Automatic annotation (TrEMBL):
It comes from Cylindrotheca closterium. Keywords: Carbohydrate metabolism, Fucose metabolism, Membrane, Transferase, Transmembrane, Transmembrane helix. InterPro entries: GDP-Fuc_O-FucTrfase. One of its GO terms (biological process) is fucose metabolic process. The keyword Membrane applies. GO terms for molecular function: transferase activity. The chain crosses the membrane at residues 34-52. This is O-fucosyltransferase family protein. It comes from the Eukaryota. Pfam families: O-FucT.
Length: 600
């Protein structure tokens, strides 16, 4: 039985990738004394103007200092006349990063009530790759070469959150975040709002959210030169002077009702902003079941023509069947043609980010189940985006792995529980996710006897099993207690401390990802994300089968999908039903020895 064993993560986490923890792990470009002095003067002056004007309002999670630093960065890029743009950008990004005291690399839980540094590292699957922080999309900073007027306006991407449960919301957000980065656009986060099943208000805790409450959005933006993010209030502030023009009429567009703060609105009032976003922008309705969002290797007419010719050639030859690739993945650095054939999943066209779209200052992605704006990004980012350049493909997968991870508070809560299980119950434990509740796929609601039959093939009797579940009646699992030591999140309330109870589902996922063997539910995006996290850990530690993306996970239902995670499967419809090895398999290819981890 191939399993995850407990690994001493405080030592060498990855024999093939991590060589040292040295002072030179941070290879950042250095500025001259005069450049640094000039930056300090400029930053101080900008902050003074900001305070004096009170133009922008502070919101928790995304500070005005952050927005101001991005403006300073952009002004340097546009006004300096010597040297390469990327070098100038790196210097400025390094300065902005130094203003922020939170680092995405590693995990320290001192301020969150533990556990120890060594115990916390078990949760860490993300890497710190300095060279990745300097990557720019070919379409980034287009305005800097097209004219100062466009620079002042900038380019933005807005979107509507998915209306389903948290993991559908997260999945859609990841996809749109990846699209925004590769379009070179600033991502605009939706206002704080109620999210389905995340509205518990006990003890006056937060029950309205945007994505900065779950992910370190500000840290991602400040640490990475190619990713900018602002909140909706900051975005709408830009419309007050009429600089944006309606894409149809060419007339100035102002905020709806001249209002910029749309946090906490609901019902018909919420629709006012939604309708305005749709009516005032260039709406994109790229449907994941119909096409792949495709990006050429460079921002040139020749590169776009290459991609168009590739599409034509493949469809002339005939669309391959995804089953042709089961157990036979193509190399991650294969030609664009071979990679596209593996990932098409029966789709018959590409959606191009062409020259016309590049000129649009503002693109909006709607979400609706019906009507004119019928669209839904119910797809994993890696199953929807295609890159002619394999390095851009792997970089995007690393970007999501290394940056778009749950905030430290959630990670540390999970680390405390995992540490408690290992020290108080069993150093090697197994995990399950049993989906019950309001799940629409009724054929997944199987009896406890069928669940036992499924798991008993790979989980030995008397083993400790941690079960993540939405089943409130725990007597459902009573038959399993005859064979196993069963644990739930409820058994570790003291270890959870005062964490927001709306975060319990995320904590459950992280704990379940650390099991030796895992059983989950087909169709569940909750199970799917657990498997992706397990894939990241497997690739990191190079466990048996990692070259093909194989992990020690199974499905207790559906029966014919029981061991699909034990073999390479390419992406296929329905994309949301599971996660696929292409998202974690060998994604550090080409990075060489540029992975580092901070000292304790």
């Amino acid at each position: 039985m191939e399993t995850f064993e407990k690994i001493n993560v405080s030592g060498n986490r990855n024999k093939g990738k991590i060589n040292s923890i040295k002072d030179n792990a941070r290879r950042r470009s250095k500025s001259s004394f005069l450049s640094d002095y000039f930056l300090v003067i400029t930053f101080t002056f900008a902050v003074f103007l900001l305070v004096w004007s009170h133009r922008f309002h502070h919101h928790d999670g995304l500070s005005t200092n952050h927005l101001e630093m991005k403006r300073i960065k952009e002004s340097f890029i546009s006004t300096s006349s010597t040297g390469k743009t990327t070098n100038k950008t790196r210097k400025i990004a390094s300065t902005a990063t130094n203003q922020h005291d939170h680092r995405l690399a590693g995990l320290k839980c001192d301020q969150w009530g533990g556990p120890s540094f060594d115990a916390a590292q078990e949760m860490v699957y993300w890497e710190d790759i300095p060279s990745d922080q300097n990557y720019l999309s070919p379409f980034h900073l287009k305005a800097a070469t097209d004219g100062a007027s466009e620079l002042r306006i900038g380019q933005f991407l807005t979107f509507e959150p998915d209306g389903g449960g948290w993991n559908n919301i997260r999945m859609s957000m990841e996809t749109l975040l990846a699209i925004a980065f590769n379009m070179g656009r600033t991502l605009v986060l939706p206002p704080h709002q109620k999210m389905y099943l995340l509205s518990k208000e006990e003890k006056k805790q937060r029950s309205e959210f945007s994505f900065e409450h779950f992910f370190h959005m500000q840290s991602i933006s400040q640490e990475h030169i190619g990713f900018n993010v602002i909140n909706m209030d900051e975005f709408l502030q830009l419309f007050l002077d009429g600089r944006f023009k309606h894409p149809g009429t060419g007339k100035p567009v102002f905020p709806p009702n001249n209002r910029t703060d749309w946090n906490s609105v609901a019902g018909p009032e919420k629709n006012i902003l939604k309708d305005w976003l749709r009516e005032s922008s260039k709406v994109l309705q790229w449907l994941p079941d119909d096409c792949m969002a495709s990006f050429p290797r460079s921002n040139t007419a020749e590169a776009m023509e290459e991609l168009e010719n590739l599409e034509e050639a493949i469809f002339k030859e005939g669309i391959p069947n995804y089953e042709d690739y089961v157990g036979k993945p193509v190399p991650v650095d294969s030609s664009a043609k071979e990679r596209l054939k593996e990932n098409l999943a029966g789709r018959k066209k590409l959606c191009f980010y062409d020259t016309e779209l590049q000129r649009e200052p503002w693109i909006h992605f709607p979400v609706s189940h019906q009507g004119q704006y019928k669209a839904r990004m119910l797809v994993h980012f890696y199953a929807f985006l295609f890159f002619a350049d394999w390095k851009a493909d792997l970089w995007t997968k690393r970007f999501v792995r290394d940056h778009v991870r749950y905030v430290d508070e959630i990670q540390c809560a999970a680390a405390r529980v995992v540490h408690a299980i290992r020290t108080k119950h069993d150093s090697n434990f197994d995990t399950m996710h049993v989906r019950r509740g309001d799940f629409q796929y009724k054929n997944t609601r199987v009896s406890i006897d069928k669940i036992y039959t499924a798991i008993s093939k790979h989980i030995h009797k008397n083993s400790t099993i941690y079960i993540a579940t939405d089943e409130r009646d725990k007597s459902f699992f009573a038959p399993l207690k005859k064979h196993y030591n069963i644990l739930y999140l409820d058994d570790f309330l003291e270890d959870l401390g005062g964490i927001n109870t709306n975060f319990y589902g995320m904590v459950d996922q992280l704990i379940a990802s650390r099991g030796r063997t895992f059983f989950g539910c087909w169709f569940s995006t909750f199970t799917g994300y657990i498997n992706r996290l397990r894939g990241y850990h497997a690739d990191d530690h190079q466990t048996p089968g990692y070259e093909d993306g194989i992990i020690p996970s199974y499905y207790y239902t559906l029966e014919d999908r029981y061991d699909h995670m034990r073999e390479f499967w390419p992406v296929k419809r329905a994309f949301y039903a599971r996660e696929f090895p292409t998202s974690w398999r060998l994604i550090d290819t080409g990075v060489e020895e540029d992975i580092a981890r901070p000292a304790t």
